[in-house]
Fold this protein.
Amino acid sequence: MQLSIIVPTYNEGQSAVELIRRADSALQGIDAEILFVDDGTDDLPEVVADASSWAHVSVRVRRRPAATGGLSGAVVEGLRHARSNICIVMDGDLQHPPEVLRDLWERHARGDADVVVASRYVDGGDADGLADVGRVLVSRLSTSITRAMFPVRLREVTDPMTGFFLVDTATLDLDELRPRGFKILLELLVRRQHRVAEVPFVFASRFAGESKATVRQGVQFLAQVAALRFGRMSSFAVVGAFGAAANIAIVWAMTSLGIDYLLAAIVAAEATILGNFVLFELAVFRDMRAEASTLAGRFWRSFAFNNVESAVRIPVVALLVSGVHLSSVLATALTLAVAFIARFLFHSLVVYRPRASRAPQASAPVSEAAEAITP
């Protein structure tokens, strides 16, 4: 088979028939397949089964029993089970026009690129299909941040945040990927050097349904970029920085109201312990949750450790304030910095350690913690 089209979906059966019809027309003369990797519960398998009776391209569905790794995990699953090593990844909501499939294919056929990116930001491309001006600005900003953090690997890429691209899987090591976010192209491009080309496309309006973009995905994106650039410890540090800022702000606000700094430190510590755990679950250790203990087990280990750490740290704050005569805010900041390494190691090696039945993989958190990408 010459070409595999990987379409990660979640309850997008409404647009599947139109996608197949337009892709089938665009791919005339190419021995191709469309592989839907589905995490939904709708009638997509029945829709695809019906379409297979009239489509010239092969059409099939792979429904994942566990949606691990989110959209990126679905893409990697599709790449593993594709019948061709030349794969195009696209969304299932028709904001990626199927007519561009042939453009990607023909550009790759020149033989000078391993990855061909469908870009909204080259001549002939457009991002007008984004829901509103706010989404356009967020897209532009996130693209600028990403290119600034990976200036070498992304120097030829105008749209590293797109989900529409062709890749030759012979140039990939799928086992090295850590699908933790929803920007899988970014993961592919920064983990190893590729020859990259681009073709323009116009980002279309959504065919059906609503955008799945959320604040949660925004947090995951920031953590993904940090983890790719510096390793898992950096995304832990991003969350820790948010928590430290919140902790210091609470101490400042409460002491400004005349509340004793020790009580302020206790309240601030409990609030940030809870907030940090939520962000660890959503972003930093999201890819490790499936193999770790239960949510309750993870929470209580994290909560207990952080309270013990706070029980040690707060008397140190008191000593620094009363003995060394530091301000309460500075003392809080210094002790939080010292506690950072201990928290990271405990969460990597204990809270999110794989269950005993998967003990041979237990060293993974250590290697990932030390992992650093230096493009």
